Amino acid sequence: MLRAHTVEQVRTAEAALLARLPEGALMQRAAAGLAYAVLDLLGGGYGRRVLLLVGSGDNGGDALHAGAVLARRGVQVEAWLLSSSAHEGGVAALRGAGGRIGTPGPTGRLDVVVDGIVGIGGRPGLRPDAVAALAHVAGVPVVAVDTPSGVDVDTGEISGSHVTADLTVTFGTHKVCHLVDPAAQACGALQLVDIGLDLPEAPVEALQAADVAALLPRPAADAHKYTRGVVGVRSGSAAYPGAALLSVAGAACGLAGMVRYDGDPAALDLVRAAHPEVVGPGRVQAWVVGSGSDDGAEDALRAAVADGVPIVVDADALAFARLTRGRPAVLTPHAGELARLLGVERADVEARWLEHARRAAREHDAVVLLKGRHTVVARPDGRARVTTTGTPWLATAGAGDVLGGLVGALLATGLDPFDAASVGSWLHGAAATLAAQDGPIVASDVAAALPDLLATLTTR
Ligand SMILES: NC(=O)C1=CN([C@@H]2O[C@H](COP(=O)(O)OP(=O)(O)OC[C@H]3O[C@@H](n4cnc5c(N)ncnc54)[C@H](O)[C@@H]3O)[C@@H](O)[C@H]2O)[C@@H](O)CC1
Ligand SMILES: Nc1ncnc2c1ncn2[C@@H]1O[C@H](COP(=O)(O)OP(=O)(O)O)[C@@H](O)[C@H]1O
Ligand SMILES: [K+]
């Protein structure tokens, strides 16, 4: 599991460790990890040129100490001190190792810029001198120390200017901004340096392949189709029969024991032709309702709610999400649908993904899966998982229908809504990446890639 902690949690853990270690030891660990990450990126040390952008705090201290390590490896290191003060030990270490302190201005060739302006102690935004310094080095690969300076570390929000990194080297644990957009997009690749922090449960996590493999339902030796779980699909309409096909394609991934289609008769023949294993109405352990349901969404959702089983509430059914209040449910809006649900602007949702997903989960007392580049799955108590699998090729019509069906199948097997939503979203993204190896994909390709993906996970 990739875990992201808050600044307060990191500070508390750091304080406990600092009390046990000799002075400066923690910063040395961080700086050494940072320096080796930069050397990896440079492919060596001798003759390379690195510029450090240094703020007034320990983030700048990390950059300076790492600069000293680099200088001892033959890297030409220059530091620009962007505040009236800078970490004294770090400045001395850099000078002692042969690095130099310079003044912002045009530079010759640079191989890497190290962003040590601010880390977890920074307020969002950058000061004009930092913006000006960055303008001198535009186009040079940037390694951010701990966080890209300027982003809001605990929310992943961005207000004002910030650094956009190619690589972010972070210490002890991930921070929320590393996972949640839009800040996550400013991090580039992530590298975690273990500095020995002892941390509590994380408020935000990202499933990894091993977590998904462990959570995936597998049939018991004596299983039959009903013990494995039956998923029912009420989606599609005369106007949108394709939505029925795609939700059923996601539901028919093989994880549940059976798929029932109980939607518009106009779509039934198409569903049967494409999926001969799908049967008609009857008892189910979970419902998927709403994609392409058109004006039948409310009735379809009411009927599903009357069954008392967990429900995936998608697309047209989201307008009636209040009907599932207090019942096990996963709401699957994209940003526009969540905006309508909460009565805010889409741009507000896209500026504050985590806050809005959490708010909707709390207000609807349900798990909310907010779809986007980094999908956020939030529980009513605020715990959240972010999906980091996927590819921009997944932004294709009908992809959400496949996801709804897949999450429904996982609910039917007995996974709780938080696990079903986050595992489903992870699989959906990973299947899209697999399908898009050779270029563009359509939604049905994502469903078609699921068996191969699941095979690699279930044999782990
Ligand atoms: N204490 C330690 O031994 C360790 C510290 N670590 C590093 O220390 C960092 C945290 O250090 P600090 O608590 O000193 O905080 P930072 O260095 O992140 O930033 C705080 C300083 O920046 C100034 N500042 C705040 N917002 C600003 C802005 N928008 N623009 C310009 N200046 C701004 C503040 O006045 C303050 O002096 C971590 O991110 C990490 O890099 C890690 O290496 C782990 C070990
Ligand atoms: N830029 C992106 N990168 C990766 N995945 C994306 C991106 N944009 C959207 N997605 C994913 O694509 C899917 C689109 O689903 P959705 O918006 O419901 O479309 P539709 O309603 O056409 O099915 C979601 O799973 C979402 O997380
Ligand atoms: K930084």
TrEMBL record:
<comment type="function">
    <text>Bifunctional enzyme that catalyzes the epimerization of the S- and R-forms of NAD(P)HX and the dehydration of the S-form of NAD(P)HX at the expense of ADP, which is converted to AMP. This allows the repair of both epimers of NAD(P)HX, a damaged form of NAD(P)H that is a result of enzymatic or heat-dependent hydration.</text>
</comment>
<dbReference type="InterPro" id="IPR029056">
    <property type="entry name" value="Ribokinase-like"/>
</dbReference>
<feature type="binding site">
    <location>
        <position position="400"/>
    </location>
    <ligand>
        <name>AMP</name>
    </ligand>
</feature>
<keyword id="KW-0521">NADP</keyword>
<protein>
    <recommendedName>
        <fullName>Bifunctional NAD(P)H-hydrate repair enzyme</fullName>
        <ecNumber>4.2.1.136</ecNumber>
        <ecNumber>5.1.99.6</ecNumber>
    </recommendedName>
</protein>
<comment type="similarity">
    <text>Belongs to the NnrD/CARKD family.</text>
</comment>
<dbReference type="InterPro" id="IPR036652">
    <property type="entry name" value="YjeF_N_dom_sf"/>
</dbReference>
<comment type="function">
    <text>Catalyzes the dehydration of the S-form of NAD(P)HX at the expense of ADP, which is converted to AMP. Together with NAD(P)HX epimerase, which catalyzes the epimerization of the S- and R-forms, the enzyme allows the repair of both epimers of NAD(P)HX, a damaged form of NAD(P)H that is a result of enzymatic or heat-dependent hydration.</text>
</comment>
<keyword id="KW-0413">Isomerase</keyword>
<dbReference type="Pfam" id="PF01256">
    <property type="entry name" value="Carb_kinase"/>
</dbReference>
<keyword id="KW-0456">Lyase</keyword>
<dbReference type="GO" id="GO:0052856">
    <property type="term" value="F:NAD(P)HX epimerase activity"/>
</dbReference>
<dbReference type="GO" id="GO:0046496">
    <property type="term" value="P:nicotinamide nucleotide metabolic process"/>
</dbReference>
<feature type="binding site">
    <location>
        <position position="146"/>
    </location>
    <ligand>
        <name>(6S)-NADPHX</name>
    </ligand>
</feature>
<feature type="binding site">
    <location>
        <position position="149"/>
    </location>
    <ligand>
        <name>K(+)</name>
    </ligand>
</feature>
<feature type="binding site">
    <location>
        <position position="401"/>
    </location>
    <ligand>
        <name>(6S)-NADPHX</name>
    </ligand>
</feature>
<keyword id="KW-0479">Metal-binding</keyword>
<feature type="binding site">
    <location>
        <position position="334"/>
    </location>
    <ligand>
        <name>(6S)-NADPHX</name>
    </ligand>
</feature>
<dbReference type="GO" id="GO:0046872">
    <property type="term" value="F:metal ion binding"/>
</dbReference>
<feature type="binding site">
    <location>
        <position position="59"/>
    </location>
    <ligand>
        <name>K(+)</name>
    </ligand>
</feature>
<keyword id="KW-0067">ATP-binding</keyword>
<feature type="binding site">
    <location>
        <begin position="371"/>
        <end position="375"/>
    </location>
    <ligand>
        <name>AMP</name>
    </ligand>
</feature>
<dbReference type="GO" id="GO:0052855">
    <property type="term" value="F:ADP-dependent NAD(P)H-hydrate dehydratase activity"/>
</dbReference>
<keyword id="KW-0511">Multifunctional enzyme</keyword>
<feature type="binding site">
    <location>
        <begin position="119"/>
        <end position="125"/>
    </location>
    <ligand>
        <name>(6S)-NADPHX</name>
    </ligand>
</feature>
<feature type="binding site">
    <location>
        <position position="243"/>
    </location>
    <ligand>
        <name>(6S)-NADPHX</name>
    </ligand>
</feature>
<keyword id="KW-0520">NAD</keyword>
<dbReference type="InterPro" id="IPR000631">
    <property type="entry name" value="CARKD"/>
</dbReference>
<dbReference type="InterPro" id="IPR030677">
    <property type="entry name" value="Nnr"/>
</dbReference>
<feature type="binding site">
    <location>
        <begin position="58"/>
        <end position="62"/>
    </location>
    <ligand>
        <name>(6S)-NADPHX</name>
    </ligand>
</feature>
<dbReference type="GO" id="GO:0005524">
    <property type="term" value="F:ATP binding"/>
</dbReference>
<feature type="binding site">
    <location>
        <position position="115"/>
    </location>
    <ligand>
        <name>K(+)</name>
    </ligand>
</feature>
<dbReference type="GO" id="GO:0110051">
    <property type="term" value="P:metabolite repair"/>
</dbReference>
<keyword id="KW-0547">Nucleotide-binding</keyword>
<comment type="subunit">
    <text>Homotetramer.</text>
</comment>
<dbReference type="InterPro" id="IPR004443">
    <property type="entry name" value="YjeF_N_dom"/>
</dbReference>
<feature type="binding site">
    <location>
        <position position="292"/>
    </location>
    <ligand>
        <name>(6S)-NADPHX</name>
    </ligand>
</feature>
<dbReference type="Pfam" id="PF03853">
    <property type="entry name" value="YjeF_N"/>
</dbReference>
<keyword id="KW-0630">Potassium</keyword>
<comment type="similarity">
    <text>In the N-terminal section; belongs to the NnrE/AIBP family.</text>
</comment>
